[in-house]
């Protein structure tokens, strides 16, 4: 008679399933956005964080994880997913904090405060991609704002000169006060 236990395989099976589900959900979020849906893509993208966060917190409880990395990742993923879902305007402001919290915090928990050498398995490589994307969009936005300001700089100088000439004459000042 042959028997086996899936107790130790379950986290690996779920991790494998999610390694296929997460990219699929990401692609489907883009497809639904292109089809004109507004809330569905955001919920799909946010669920990649908050659903995973809940599962990580459940793994922390079920596996009796003594390092606390699963709990830290669970709290970080769940919180960031909720920010994406319900406070979308803060997503880009919270992204670097999420990446630093889960990357450095998770590694610190796993290595008992950096007393032991971390292994490759506990680096959150997706955080580095998210951080690179955040940096790209933040720097890009700053460059575009600077370019836009430079484009209207000559108009601003003309406006300031015109306003100075209008506000310097007594007749124009009386007209402006009546307005």
Largest sheet, described in full? none
The percent range for strand residues is under 5%
Q: Measure the end-to-end span.
A: 97 Å
Q: Round the Cα radius of gyration to an integer and report it.
A: 26 Å
Structural class assignment: mainly alpha
The helix-strand sequence is HHHHHH
Summarize the structure.
The chain has 179 residues and is mostly helical.
Characterization of the model:
The chain is mostly helical. The protein has a domain at 10-123. It contains six helices and no strands. It has helices at residues 10-34, 39-63, 69-86, 91-110, 125-168, 170-178. The mean pLDDT is 84. The chain crosses the membrane at residues 12-31, 93-110, 122-144. Keywords: Membrane, Transmembrane, Transmembrane helix.
Could you list some keywords that capture this structure?
mainly alpha; 179 residues; 79% helix; elongated
Q: What's the SSE blueprint?
A:
Layout (H helix, E strand, L loop, with lengths): L9 H25 L4 H25 L5 H18 L4 H20 L14 H44 L1 H9 L1
Helix pairs in contact: 1-2, 2-3, 3-4, 4-5
């Amino acid at each position: 008679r042959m028997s086996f236990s899936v107790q130790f395989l379950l986290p690996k099976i779920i991790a494998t399933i999610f390694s296929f589900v997460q990219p699929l959900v990401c692609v489907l979020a883009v497809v639904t956005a292109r089809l004109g849906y507004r809330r569905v893509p955001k919920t799909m993208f946010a669920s990649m964080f908050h659903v995973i966060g809940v599962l990580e917190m459940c793994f922390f409880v079920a596996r009796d994880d003594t390092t606390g990395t699963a709990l830290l990742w669970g709290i970080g993923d769940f919180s960031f997913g909720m920010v994406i879902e319900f406070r979308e305007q803060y997503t880009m402001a919270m992204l670097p904090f999420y990446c630093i919290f889960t990357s450095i915090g998770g590694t610190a928990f796993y290595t008992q405060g950096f007393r032991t050498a971390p292994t490759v398995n506990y680096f959150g490589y997706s955080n580095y991609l998210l951080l690179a994307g955040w940096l790209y969009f933040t720097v890009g936005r700053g460059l575009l704002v600077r370019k836009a300001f430079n484009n209207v700089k000559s108009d601003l100088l003309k406006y300031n000169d015109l306003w100075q000439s209008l506000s310097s004459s007594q007749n124009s000042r009386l007209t402006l006060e009546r307005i």
